[in-house]
Write a structure and sequence with these properties.
It is built from 15 helices and 19 strands. About 35% of the residues lie in helices and about 25% in strands. It has two domains: about 280 residues, Aminopeptidase (3-Layer(aba) Sandwich); about 180 residues, Glucose Oxidase, domain 1. Strands 1, 2, 13, 14, 15, 16, 17, 18 and 19 form a nine-stranded mixed sheet that branches. An eight-stranded mixed sheet has the order 4-3-12-6-9-10-11-5. The chain has about 500 residues and is an alpha/beta fold.
Length: about 500
């Protein structure tokens, strides 16, 4: 009562001072709602530093961080140096920062070319020389050489007799170039999709086309992708949907409608296009190289709880330099910078985590989730003693957060929600972690299938255009403020969970 009386007296005599004291009380109460943390470490997480991390990782000297390449290796060593300077311990065994795995890669020496030629029935049409990078990207794993042939549209490029589906039925593709869609025609996320999964892989589609005698392939959608196969004598490129429509201009068909028709009817719709294409590629394949995960650990401070751990992950690699630099700022220098910022803050924090925290910068994600598969095969921490794994991918552009899997793990979600409500104040949504029956697309999916509890931290809303697997995915496409808040949310959420 005495405090209330004094406050009322202040309010009557000096309302500004009273308002200031009230503000302090509100802030103190907000801070009391979250677990103990180090304000200096928390506020030391800076958007400027995180942007500097992203700027470093997207530099030309790393050549797009293609897993297996010298550029990726250099980027991995740079990350390891930052972890070492911050005081983390190497976590890959034998006092090493690096967990190695086989990772072949292909160097694209020049952009090459793609040219469309009218067939005999379309003599009134002119040839079209596609422009790089507006109309096509060279194949990241194309064989070197030149291929010219008739173009045939083969839908999804799938032969699945057990599913009564074959895009190649009645279609002669020997000596020809295939025009293909990615994905599968079945779209529901249920147990039947699991049967389609083997046919969704790019490597399957390429191998099947070559088995049937095709000499090359045009993959639709202007997205660079190293998750493909290097096949001797098989040349390919990625083309835009506009150029795919040009290939169909003599058939009277609308390319935009074809994929929808196949998925609606679940029946193939393959046909010759009456056009020819010439694809030239300049590449060099390195089949016996390796890449690595970079792993750093902050050991827990509690003698017993330190045996348990939380894994924080993000993929470090991108798609490389297929004809020009693909910087990979949003995908995924942003996620790597965010967890690096959280790792540095936690290492410097006066409030130490009681449980251990394992930071993993995965390699080989873009090539087929090689790094996370290696981690599952050879874990650095006993699986049964891992509370959960949280993954960050493309967390560098947006206005809010989405914690996928949070509602499946309410005991962990609680710490992130309290931290956000008290100190960060971004919109934070969450969902359950549902089973994905199709091809896994993230490192966390690999760990989830291996029996780990997982969550994914994404952003909601977009502030700037998203250039997915495109040359314009540079630091100008990032919003550093959301990166700072992502790293701060990680620091608080992980620390709160580790000390609960």
């Amino acid at each position: 009562m005495d405090i209330i009386y004094q406050f009322n007296t202040l309010l009557m005599n000096d309302w500004k001072l009273a308002l200031f004291l009230y503000f302090l009380l509100v802030c103190a109460n907000a801070h009391a709602q979250i677990d103990q943390y180090d304000p200096e470490a928390f506020h030391g997480i800076s958007s400027h530093t995180l942007l500097d991390y992203a700027r470093e990782l997207t530099a030309e000297k790393y050549a797009g961080r293609l897993s297996g390449s010298p550029g990726y290796d250099s980027a991995a060593h740079w990350v390891a140096r930052q972890l070492q300077e911050a005081g983390l311990k190497p976590g890959a065994g034998d006092n090493s920062w690096f967990q190695w795995f086989p990772n072949a890669w292909t160097e694209v020496l020049k952009p090459g070319s793609v040219t469309l030629f009218p067939g005999r029935e379309l003599s009134d049409k002119k040839k079209i020389k596609l422009r790089f990078p507006d109309d096509y990207y060279p194949g990241s794993n194309s064989a070197p050489g030149y291929a010219r042939g008739e173009v045939v549209y083969a839908g999804f490029g799938i032969s699945a007799p057990e599913l009564q589906y074959d895009d190649y039925a009645g279609l002669d593709v020997k000596g020809k170039i295939i025009l293909l869609e990615s994905g599968v025609p079945y779209l529901k996320n249920d147990s039947l999709l699991k049967k389609w999964e083997p046919y969704s892989y790019h490597r399957y589609k390429f191998q099947r086309a070559k088995e049937l005698g095709a000499i090359g392939l045009l993959y639709v959608d202007l997205i660079a992708n190293p998750n493909t196969s290097f096949l001797e004598g098989f040349v390919y490129a990625h083309i835009s949907r506009e150029m795919a429509q040009e290939l169909l201009s003599g058939t009277g068909k609308n390319f935009a409608d074809l994929k929808g028709q196949i998925t609606l009817t679940m029946r193939p719709n393959s046909f010759p296009t009456k056009m020819e294409a010439g694809i030239r590629a300049f590449t060099r394949n390195f089949p016996d190289t390796k890449a690595c995960n970079v792993i750093g650990i902050i050991s827990g401070s509690d003698p017993e709880l330190k045996e348990e751990a939380i894994i924080v992950g993000a993929h470090l690699d991108h798609v490389g330099h297929p004809g020009t630099l693909f910087p990979g700022a949003l995908d995924n220098a942003s996620g790597s910078a965010d967890i690096l910022g959280a790792a540095v803050a936690m290492a410097k924090s006066k409030v130490k985590p009681k449980r251990s925290v394992v930071f993993v910068f995965f390699g080989g994600e873009e090539c087929g989730l090689f790094g996370s598969k290696k981690y599952v095969e050879d874990p650095v921490w006993e699986k049964e003693k891992v509370l959960f794994m949280i993954n960050l991918d493309m967390v560098g552009n947006g206005t809010g957060f989405f914690l996928q899997g949070g509602q499946s793990n309410p005991e962990f979600l609680e710490h992130f929600e309290k931290a956000n409500n008290a100190l960060i104040h971004r919109p934070l949504q969450s969902s359950e972690m549902n089973i994905g029956y199709g091809r896994p697309r993230t490192d966390s999916a690999v760990l989830q299938m291996a029996g780990y509890k997982t969550m994914n931290l994404w952003t909601t809303g977009t502030v700037k255009p998203v250039y997915y697997h495109q040359p314009l995915d540079n630091v100008d496409a990032l919003t550093p403020e959301i990166m700072e808040d992502a790293a701060k949310l990680l620091y608080l959420g992980i620390l709160g969970t580790a000390n609960h």
